[in-house]
User: Which sequence fits this backbone?
């Protein structure tokens, strides 16, 4: 598993160095292992000044989230719905997974923000 992880990590670093995020000034990383032996990487990327993210408007222009089309890939759609979306909560759903003391333990019911 560590060999496969290392190959995938090296492939990712190669893509990053090929200007995935713009021109890179430097990158630093360290590979660590969880208690159960699974590896993970802490990665810090330093971009050249002209490629740095400076404000929330730029973040909003490059980051987006949308659900996959259930007609094109139903397996992916089911995985996203089941594993990545916050379930129903609130007074109408007192037995929901994240409900504790009549409120969401993940501090949801946040208001929608148009900007980051």
Assistant:
């Amino acid at each position: 598993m560590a060999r496969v992880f290392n190959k995938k990590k090296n492939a990712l670093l190669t893509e990053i160095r090929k200007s995935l995020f713009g021109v890179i000034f430097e990158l630093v990383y360290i590979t660590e292992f969880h208690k159960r032996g699974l590896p993970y990487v802490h990665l810090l990327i330093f971009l050249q000044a002209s490629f740095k993210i400076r404000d929330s408007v730029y973040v909003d222009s490059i980051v987006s989230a949308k659900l996959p089309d259930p007609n094109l890939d139903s397996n992916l759609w089911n995985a996203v719905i089941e594993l990545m979306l916050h379930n129903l909560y609130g007074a109408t759903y007192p037995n929901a997974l994240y409900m504790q003391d009549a409120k969401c333990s993940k501090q949801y019911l946040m208001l929608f923000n148009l900007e980051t």
Remarks:
- The two ends are 37 Å apart (CA to CA).
- Residues 67-108 form one domain.
